[in-house]
Amino acid sequence: MIKAIVSGAAGRMGGRIIHLMEEAAGITLAGACEQPDHAAVGKDVGELVGLPPKGLQVAGSLAEVLGQGEVVIEFTHPEPSLHHLREVAAAGKAMVLGTTGFSPAQVAEIHALGARTRLVFAPNMSVGVNLMFKVVADVARVLSVGYDVEIVEAHHRLKKDAPSGTALKLAQVVAHALERDLEKVGVYARRGIIGERRQEEIGIQTVRAGDIVGEHTVLFGGIGERLEIVHRAHSRDNFARGALRAAQWVVAQPPACYDMQDVLGLK
Predict the structure, then answer these.
(1) E strands along the chain, which residues?
(2) What is the pLDDT of residues 153-174, one digit of tens each?
(3) 7 vs 23, higher pLDDT
(4) CATH number, domain containing residue 14
């Protein structure tokens, strides 16, 4: 039985991961934590997320519970996530990291730390989205001439980073398939007299509204036709299930920084 620790236990994703862990075979909750000043600290984690009492209190730091588990699952914010990854790497544990919004420098440190431990780092843990990454790359290579590429993502009003990590990953996948430099061809907003669209552009546009869980569309627009590849998340459960799958997979792997393509065998 794999012993897991959920960081950000009071968050939307943390709560769903804890719920679904109750139903999952081969993995159990060994610890949960939040930031030291969070109102959830000291509360029973089961009662916190709407389950029967588990006799397990939410700790005020990862350090307090890190020794109780084999793998940490984290969907929180960039600064605490990076701090926790440093702790995980120093302790020789494994980690599943789904936090988004990291700076390029932070991403570089994540990959360096991941090489010393066992890390699954992915902007989206959904099986469907990760299959979408593969399909989009194949389509981009076929439609490499005469088709404009636009990516549109929509999320709930509370999401703090934009574009989403998934949209950025889709843009990176397309840019790589088309042998373009995303830093040079990515267009994140349009307004006013912008002139004719450059053929090499990759558009990434953002919508924030209501309680949208997550929607991503990659549009390949040609003359006389267009192809759209769409993923719509109906709940956070698909992300949570993917995270649990990654946690069960990564504990048995050698030290390296992996992504969900590795977990799902799509490479």
Answers:
(1) 2-7, 27-33, 71-74, 94-97, 118-121, 148-155, 186-187, 202-208, 214-221, 226-233, 256-258
(2) 999 999 999 999 999 999 999 9
(3) 7
(4) 3.40.50.720
- Assigned token pair, 9: 């236990």
Residue 202: give the domain boundaries: 127-233
* CB-CB contact of 18 with 32 (8 Å): yes
pLDDT of 213 > 90? The answer is: yes
- pLDDT tens digits for range 93-135: 999 999 998 999 999 999 999 999 999 999 899 999 999 999 9
Is 267 a known active-site residue?
no
What token pair was written down for 41? 């600290």
Q: Tell me which of 43, 93, 155, 231 is the catalytic residue.
A: 155
Could you tell me the CA-to-CA distances from 36 to 42, 61, 79, 80 in Å, in that order? 10, 6, 14, 11
CATH number at residue 217: 3.30.360.10
Choose the catalytic residue: 77, 134, 159, 176. 159
The enclosing H or E element of 135 equals: helix 127-142
Contact predicate 256/114, CB 8 Å: yes
- 54 is annotated as an active-site residue: no
Q: Is 191 helix (H, G, I), strand (E, B) or coil?
A: coil
DSSP letter assigned to residue 198 = P
Q: What is the mean pLDDT of the chain?
A: 96
The secondary structure of residue 96, as a DSSP letter, is E
pLDDT at 182: 97
